[in-house]
Amino acid sequence: MSHAGPPPRWRNCPRRGQPVAGKFLPMKTMLGPKYDDQVPEENRFHPSMLSNYLKSLKVKMGLLVDLTNTTRFYDRNDIEKEGIKYVKLQCKGHGECPSAETTEMFIRLCEHFMEKTPTELIGEKGVTCEPLFSFSAPLCCLLLSPAPAPSVEAAVAAFAQARAPGIYKGEYLKELFRRYGDVEEAPPPPPLPEWCFDDDSEEVDDDFGVVGQESGPSSSASAQGKRKKERLKLGAVFLEGIAVRGVTQVTAQPKLGAVQRKCQEFCEWEKSGFPGAQPVSMDRRNLHFLEQKGYKVSWKADGTRYMMLIDGKNEVYMIDRDNSVFHIANLEFPFRKDLRAHLSNTLLDGEMIVDKVNGQPVPRYLIYDIIKFNSQPVGQCDFNTRLLCIEKEIISPRLEKMKMGQIDKTKEPFSVRNKPFFDIHASRKLLEGSFSAQVSHEVDGLIFQPLGKYRPGRCDDILKWKPPSHNSVDFRLKIMWGVALLLLYSTFSHLTLRYTFTFIHLADTFLQSDLQC
């Protein structure tokens, strides 16, 4: 099996942990510049970035142990030219813990290096973080323990502190305790980190180098199309801060899996997780898209994203971005050509918002796209046709039955409306106070929707724009002559931010700008 892109779950996996006991630096694999067209700038991890990081710490790395099972990710010469010894220790992966022989080889390698160069760091690199969390780092803690009989419990805890959340596969924890302690004392694994559910990941095993495997049985085409097991988020909340009657989370199988798979199949989404289209932020690199292709614009509501699957009477489901599924009772969608019949095999996309009406919160579902209508692949049609389908086939039949007294709005859990889109020349008006006064919820930006067919997952041509007052600031960078000062703001502390910064990348220099766009 050949994979030309980055490893699965690589994009949002943290680049590195903290040095463990001042000696070991765990990190994910670096990717060379050849991957730049597939990796956003903020997610890149070039070998040069490791070198710059080490220089900022004023430390030297003398050895890099590569645990992946491929050589395609970057050029080892970029490591060796920095004076770092490079050692390839291929690990098999596929959910298997490293053999005792591989483990012993790793320990002897590290012990020998520490005897020769006790002041230099050892770097350990896996595909994402799986090998680090499951093998090498806890062994590093064992190696560095000053105790005569080092504790595997302390080793696991030390690594979790340096590289949260620590070992997150239960079978690896058990094997580690089986080899170095008492398997009965193995703790349960921590919850999976959010980056494990990166929507853009390839859905294959992410153990020691199965991605990019260059030989062996795992390279067969039979592994293609393998989906990652869907996670179940118990206690999912439908709308934060407001109780909506008639809404219950679906947690039982096979119904949960059936709803998730149907949505994915309707979207032609071959991975796991939420299949809906994901917009990207507007910037100088994609602003010209508005001139090159047709677009419509609408306001960006401060709402909650949901797809809606209509699969027959009393079979209406909402799917959120965590791929949690909710059953919606007492919500009817009649068939326009026969109002006695109910729609099925219909998939909508939209958002839940909360309007304030006479001071009271009123939940509404705003439909802004449609993928399937009664099994018809309307998602393949242009956006204008899809908008017409929503109004004519979804909204109008409901209004007709309401006029006939056959749908009682007061018994429905929330109202349903179509979200209008406009010519992009109306963009300014959507932000003016006169328009904002017409909607009863917060308008926090604009969405620019291309006129092409519906595409699942990250869509680089669906653009979202927020005014500077609504943008969050994760860091401030101030450039002085020859000196770069980076001030990081922790998301876990209380922040008072007075400025919004825009950075313009010119050649290799970042300039601070007060440009508001």
Automatic annotation (TrEMBL):
One of its GO terms (biological process) is 7-methylguanosine mRNA capping. Keywords: GTP-binding, Hydrolase, mRNA capping, mRNA processing, Nucleotide-binding, Nucleotidyltransferase, Nucleus, Transferase. Its EC number is 3.6.1.74, 2.7.7.50. It catalyses: a 5'-end diphospho-ribonucleoside in mRNA + GTP + H(+) = a 5'-end (5'-triphosphoguanosine)-ribonucleoside in mRNA + diphosphate; a 5'-end triphospho-ribonucleoside in mRNA + H2O = a 5'-end diphospho-ribonucleoside in mRNA + phosphate + H(+). GTP binds at residues 305, 321, 349-351, 464-466. Residues 278-466 form the mRNA capping enzyme adenylation domain. It is found in: Nucleus. InterPro entries: mRNA_cap_enz_bifunc, mRNA_cap_enzyme_adenylation, mRNA_Capping_Enz/RNA_Phosphat, Prot-tyrosine_phosphatase-like. One of its GO terms (molecular function) is phosphoprotein phosphatase activity. The active site is at 129 (phosphocysteine intermediate), 300 (n6-gmp-lysine intermediate). Residues 207-227 are annotated as: Disordered. One of its GO terms (cellular component) is nucleus. Bifunctional mRNA-capping enzyme exhibiting RNA 5'-triphosphate monophosphatase activity in the N-terminal part and mRNA guanylyltransferase activity in the C-terminal part. Catalyzes the first two steps of cap formation: by removing the gamma-phosphate from the 5'-triphosphate end of nascent mRNA to yield a diphosphate end, and by transferring the GMP moiety of GTP to the 5'-diphosphate terminus of RNA via a covalent enzyme-GMP reaction intermediate. In the C-terminal section; belongs to the eukaryotic GTase family. In the N-terminal section; belongs to the non-receptor class of the protein-tyrosine phosphatase family. This is mRNA-capping enzyme.
